[in-house]
Amino acid sequence: MPNSLDGLQFPLNETTQKPSTSHTGKAIISEALSIVDHKVSQQSLNEKNWRKRYPAYFKALVEHGIRSPNHAITIAKQGLHKAHHSFVFYRDGVKYLLKDVMNIANITPLHTVKLHGESNEAPTWYVPYHGKNLQGQALLDQIEAWETRGIIEPSHAQALRLVNQHPEWFDLSDRTTVLFGAASEAGPLTWLAKWKANIVAVDLPNPKVWEKILNTIQKGNATLIAPSLEIVSESIHTSELKNKLGVNLLTQLPEVAQWLTQFSQSLDLAAIAYLDGEKHVRVSMAMDTIMSIVSEKKPDSSLMFMCTPTDVYAIPKEVVEASHEKFIHRSNVQKWLTQGVKTLSLQHFFQTNGQQLIRSNNGKDYGIADCLVIEQGPNYALAKRIQQWRATLAHHQGQRVSINIAPSTTTHSVTKNPLLKAAFNGAELFDVEAFRPETTNAIMAALWIHDLRNDASAANPETPLDHPLELMMEGANHGGLWRVAYVARTALPFAALYGFATDKLPLEKLSSLFKK
């Protein structure tokens, strides 16, 4: 944490007078559970080993959410309410609760800069994959292959097929998309720039970031709308423009919210910004606050989130059954090897994904995919949970919400962790696929368009859902993690070892034996 507090911050611990991410995280999760399970709520609040034990409490959120559609809404309301009454915002030495951030007196108006792309090409879509740009039948064949292998869910495959049938959907000249974290490596900027979109780009005032954004826009057919702290001449050269653009979501949150509420058109707001560690929670809260303020002023706005597969979710009954089938039909080599490793590790590795179905009071059975990776930490889990809560609540309240699970992707932020990088390299051993960023970008951008254009999609609040948590089940591309025969994090170390080894040794034969 910085010494001079400015902008959106974790609250100070009353005892130590220092910010504590664990203390705040426990308090938020405890409040989310307080009405549906008082006992577990108190246990989470008093948990002494939060950084190792947090997955149990995030799983409890999902389990109780499954049992009743009303519980899912209550959990989201309670969690968000506590978060907005916990985080604080500092401006000129004065502290405000985050919920009161728009009461700040000295909000400096932002100026708007526009730039039009230089291309006249018609919108087009393809999926870069293993060195090829898949279109037409080749794309349909790959979608079917992913679906057959259990890499993507049938609803995800169907959405991709549908957008492939409707190339007219990709003309976004009638939409204004707001990208929080516009230059994000896993974000849709590159595709929106080819689809005639009006792109409101919100990102840090960093010349390298804006050089990337400006170059992307110039090559495409879209229109860039960007914030600036000063009036910028229309004749300014793009080489200088990169030094004039950008805002910091953590310190200029009220400015961004005020700027966006002044747009006359409806907005499609995408929360794709990512920062490392505790900053990820803070930027998630900043995006959540701005989305809430804009949605209140402009109720026709839509929301977009991209979930991580390394989280815990309610899943359909048929996915649970598929996971059980995969465990039963393991190869003899896999049974022998995994049992040996499991015994030697004192049951820590290769724990059976023996999840039981949970009956909801809507009459349906659901399972839980617990794919949390402890190494990513409780801050990452909390940041993503905040986004799920907002999506659940906003959709319940009648707002269009696109929230889809994106596959594990080999972005820089992921692969700089040696363990995760190696685990993804070895994921094929368990029929899990990690996607390259360019593939994820193409797929998830198309899925967003599907959710905006297809009125029969789950994103449309008028489309009936049997349970609020089905919003996250629909359109999932988990890369196969939901259908793994083991609890994902207990197979991760072995996958990592295999991933490390494949860089040094020819292990294709072991892989084929393991999966036969």
Structure description:
With 516 residues, the protein is of the alpha/beta class. It has a domain at 7-109. The chain contains 20 helices and 15 strands. The strands form 4 sheets. Strands 4-9-8-7-10-11-15 form a 7-stranded mixed β-sheet, with helices on both faces. Helix 5 (136-149) packs antiparallel against helix 6. The model is unreliable at 340-347 (pLDDT under 50). Residues 12-24 have a biased composition (Polar residues). Residues 1-24 are annotated as: Disordered.
List keywords for this structure.
seven-stranded mixed sheet, alpha/beta, 15 strands
Write the layout of secondary structure elements.
Layout: E1 7-9, H1 21-33, H2 38-45, H3 50-67, H4 69-84, E2 88-91, E3 94-97, E4 111-116, E5 127-129, E6 132-134, H5 136-149, H6 154-165, E7 176-180, H7 189-192, E8 198-202, H8 207-219, E9 223-228, H9 238-241, H10 253-261, E10 268-271, H11 278-297, E11 302-307, E12 312-316, H12 317-328, H13 332-344, E13 358-359, E14 365-370, H14 377-396, E15 401-405, H15 412-415, H16 418-425, H17 437-453, H18 470-473, H19 488-502, H20 508-515
Parallel strand pairs: 7-8, 7-10, 8-9, 10-11, 11-15
Antiparallel strand pairs: 1-2, 2-3, 4-9, 5-6, 12-14, 13-14
Helix pairs in contact: 1-2, 1-3, 1-4, 3-4, 4-14, 5-6, 6-17, 10-11, 11-14, 16-19
